[in-house]
Amino acid sequence: MRWFSEITSTNELRLEYKRLLMKHHPDNGGKVSDMQEINVEYDALFACIKAKREVDGHSSTHNENEENKAFKEVLNNIISYHMKIEVIGSWIWCFDCYAYKDRLKEIGFKFGAKKKAWCWHYGDYHRHHKTEISLDDIRAKYGSQKVTNEAKQHALN
Predict the structure, then answer these.
(1) Is residue 3 part of a domain?
(2) What angle in degrees, to the nearest 10, is found between the helix axes of 149-156 and 10-24?
């Protein structure tokens, strides 16, 4: 594979896709043909990982293909916005983004008043605990990757 190497899980695949998207998206100065190759390779690798999980008996109860398409679509929609973007587990968080609040609402983001950020997650979310969990605790549990405006500019060069 040209774009993805040594990827073993859907989380790793999503993080690498996001990194490649920042660098090669046409809105960031990349080539359309490169993004098309990345998307084809992403879809093929995702299907392989999913098939392997099903063979190993680790199939999930929700439709990962739909979740995956939605995740890619949301990242493609917001990658050119001048705000801080962070992927924490399977959630996308946006900070310092007041100028884009209406667009984020249209895409399906919700505002977390206590965390002072907009977040997106595929499907419905039902809280499983009564106490408030800080973003730092969530980051520690699920891992995160931040994308700042400076990182976007660096990806363009």
Answers:
(1) no
(2) 70
Q: What is the pLDDT of residues 87-97, one digit of tens each?
A: 888 889 999 99
Tokens of 151: 């990182």
Helix (H, G, I), strand (E, B) or coil at 143: coil
Determine, yes or no, domain membership for 67: yes
The model scores a pTM over 0.70: no
How many domains, in total, are found in the chain?
1
**Which residue type does 103 have?**
R
144 assigned to some structural domain: yes
Asked if residue 1 is part of any domain, the answer here is no
Q: Which domain holds residue 124?
A: 10-156
Place of tokens 């392989």: 48
Task: Please state, in angstroms and rounded to a whole number, the distance separating the CA atoms of residues 104 and 99.
Answer: 10
Contact between 4 and 16 under an 8 Å Cβ cutoff? The reply is yes
CA distance 92 to 120: 5
Of how many residues is the chain composed?
Answer: 157
